[in-house]
Amino acid sequence: MQNMYKYLKSAIEGVNRTEKQHDILIFKKSEELALKYDIKYDGKSFVPDDLELADATFEAGIELLHSVGVYCKSTGKVIQIDEEDILKSLNVTNPLEIGRLKEKVTVPHRYPMASIPPVVIGGPMGGSISEENFLYINLSAVLENVVQGIYSGAMKQFCGEYIRPKSPLELLAVLKAARNERLATKIGGREGLALMGPSTPTLPTSYLLVSSDELYSCADPQEVYMDDLKTDYETLSKCIFHQEHGNHYISGQVPVFGGPCIGSAEGLAIIDVAETLQSKVLAHSSIHGSGAVHSETGSSSAKEILWASNLASLAISRNMNYYTARYYWNAAGICTEMMFYETAAQAIGDTVCGRDILMGPTGARGGVPDHSSGLESRFMGEIAQMATHLSLSEANRLVAKIYSRYEDKLSNPPAGKPFDKCYRIRSEYDLEPTEEYASIYRKVSYEIMGHFPEGVA
Predict the structure, then answer these.
(1) 276 with 43: CB under 8 angstroms?
(2) Which of 113, 139, 172, 277 reaches 20 to 30 Å from 48, CA-CA?
């Protein structure tokens, strides 16, 4: 807690700055650092293979965090992050086990082109989920053997009524959601499977309400959301709570390419590294989850996002010991070929670039209810396992082929179908994808397997 106290004091006594000034400073400094470290995006690549470029991006990320600091929205002050603290944190290793009983998983420290596949966390990971399909969607992920945990979505109704954010009714909804997540693991015969989240809360009390051995235990990474090189008292309070109780927690950030801080793919890669360092040094989280999206498409599968995220993953996995995860926000809805293509392009890059955990995917950008399923998570895991045999250059060529299959649809993606239209649901013990959905999965799987180098698929 010593560093936390130091940074809390900085949040009170630091330099005054407005949030807009902070955004502009991040934008300018990240672009300056891209020039200083000669970080250039050629506009064509998807998976970088220049390891010196990755190392330069890491150095730029350190300099960005140290020079700009972290803005505290609660006080309007800047928390200065000492470079010494950053450097001391790089090689600190804390083994990570998630889940309990026979479902306990030891998360591997991965590196570029590692032969061990990343851990697969299924579920809508914050996407909108209807009350009536909440249990079934989580259960569909639990039933997939490749899934090693579930990151649930945000339940939007309680007893048929819309949940007004920050109302007492939210607490009841959060309890129901967490109990249904845990119930899904029991029905699926996987008691102890790791939960991540919760995703329904907007109140700090709602998050802490379900932090218990019964629901979200210390082995179930709990969500602490952070903005672009920003924080607030609520976030810092959650971090203190989880540290004091010995809980694993995941700090999630979704930087927006084309937003107020990020104007280039190079800048995004540097900011992604800086935010990861922020999570380890300031938040002390067990995992950092990144899910950069493009402002024009709202998806994490656009070309610039793929390149920048892969470059940042290379930089982090080569230069620090820390567990990183990635959120998959796909543009297309589920039960479409495009949804599978988007997932494949991301899973291949993340796997070869050393990402430790893959999360999702969720369709329709997470905004349309019930666009998540276990079949999508199964596909993500299968592609990741095959990608462990690829080199960086092989992965780049393969992602280029896959990206060409959906590039022209990103601005107007197919809507797909909600979960209950592409799964046959007879009961909690009898649900499976429809034949239409299964046939799309098989078609895209066989097509992508055909593009893998001989002897891999």
Answers:
(1) no
(2) 277
